[in-house]
């Protein structure tokens, strides 16, 4: 008999999440039935979507939603071998039982030398978000100028590097000087700390006096309201996330987008990475190749210990992460 630790949502978040919103519990797992596997989480992901999705999809007492890289420790399913690592969507749990249907194997060409945690970041859902958002929503062309915010995070850092691979000029904004230094190190043409500039409008203008063809928006709110006025005619805005609004208890008010949308003939499109579920293999293969060639650099903020899941999640929402925030069990 195996005892799993799980984090449950004890009380729905009101405003910014607090440690007291979570409860750590233990669950006795039953013995495996034929066709089932026992898995142990090795790395767990903490992601911004957990904040808005918790309100939409969860009730108090539910295990927190989320993905992990897990190792198969026991198998009564001939299709799965003990010792193999997979990506699962089993929530914040140390151990869990699966029938195998919901598991994704790591790409077969995954090298031994590469941390498996990257399957939750650059070579996982966040990397795919950057890939499909740029390719299919922004439809970037060589020579264009791309703006991305939360640029030193899991999605943003890949957006900037892919845009460089695809021949664009890239401007990134992030919330600390260390993050800005990192962006310059990984090849962003321009980067600035949006928290310390005296005027966001001026900083955006200075970074690209001719404006922006594409804006990959991870943040929304006030940042987006300022940036939209610096789009070039026929610019494209990929509305990926709105992290500046996830913890609001009262909805933010305008400025509103219609006037610049009309006169600059902009295209603004919200998207979910899951819309390209049928092309994840293509995206993961491309991302893995670029990482192995050194064309896409990865950084991870690794928090040690399953007991620190809530702290890692809250820290990521506060901007404490450089690159992808993960927890090592
Ligand atoms: N549409 C889709 O399918 C998907 C959307 N997303 C969205 O992409 C965005 C980035 O996700 P991800 O890369 O995983 O997360 P990150 O790794 O970028 O971590 C979140 C970052 O957001 C920034 N941030 C937090 N609060 C604010 C704020 N009030 N204003 C501005 N920036 C803030 C912080 O960076 P800083 O220090 O720079 O402020 C923080 O580090 C999120 O909005 C997320 O919801 C993610 C995956 C899929
Ligand atoms: C429970 C695991 C769900 C994994 C799918 C993640 C989809 C992310 C879409 C993100 C939206 C905004 O952040």
Automatic annotation (TrEMBL):
The keyword Oxidoreductase applies. CDD domains: leukotriene_B4_DH_like (cd08294). Keywords: Acetylation, Cytoplasm, Fatty acid metabolism, Hydroxylation, Lipid metabolism, NADP, Oxidoreductase, Phosphoprotein, Prostaglandin metabolism. GO terms for biological process: prostaglandin metabolic process. It is found in: Cytoplasm. Monomer or homodimer. This is Prostaglandin reductase 1. It comes from Nestor notabilis (Kea).
């Amino acid at each position: 008999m195996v005892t799993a630790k799980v984090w449950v949502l004890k009380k729905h978040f009101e405003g910014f999440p607090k440690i007291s919103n979570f409860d750590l519990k233990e669950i006795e797992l039953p013995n495996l039935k034929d066709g089932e596997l026992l898995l142990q989480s090795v790395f767990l992901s903490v992601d911004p979507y957990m904040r808005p999705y918790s309100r939409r999809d969860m009730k108090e007492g539910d295990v927190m939603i989320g993905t992990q890289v897990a190792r198969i420790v026991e198998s009564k399913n001939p299709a799965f071998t003990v010792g193999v690592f997979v990506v699962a969507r089993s929530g914040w749990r140390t151990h869990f039982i699966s029938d195998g249907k919901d598991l994704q194997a790591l790409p077969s060409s995954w090298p031994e030398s590469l941390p498996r945690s990257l399957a939750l970041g650059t070579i996982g859902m966040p990397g795919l978000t950057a890939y499909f958002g740029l390719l299919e929503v922004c439809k970037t062309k060589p020579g264009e100028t791309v703006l991305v915010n939360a640029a030193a995070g899991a999605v943003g850092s890949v957006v900037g590097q892919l845009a460089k691979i695809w021949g664009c000029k890239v401007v990134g904004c992030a919330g600390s000087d260390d993050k800005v230094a990192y962006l310059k190190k990984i090849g962003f043409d321009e980067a600035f700390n949006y928290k310390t500039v005296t005027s966001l409008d001026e900083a955006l203008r200075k970074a690209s006096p001719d404006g922006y063809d594409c804006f990959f928006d991870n943040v929304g709110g006030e940042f987006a309201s300022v940036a939209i006025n610096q789009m070039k005619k026929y610019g494209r805005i990929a509305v990926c996330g709105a992290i500046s609004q996830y913890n609001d208890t009262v909805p933010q008010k305008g400025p509103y987008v219609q006037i610049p949308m009309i006169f600059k003939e902009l295209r603004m499109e919200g998207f979910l990475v899951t819309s390209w579920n049928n092309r994840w293999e293509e995206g993961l293969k491309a991302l893995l190749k670029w990482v192995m060639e050194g064309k896409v650099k990865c950084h991870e903020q690794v928090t040690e210990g399953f007991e620190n899941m809530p702290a890692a999640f809250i820290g990521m929402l506060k901007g404490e992460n450089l690159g992808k925030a993960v927890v090592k069990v």
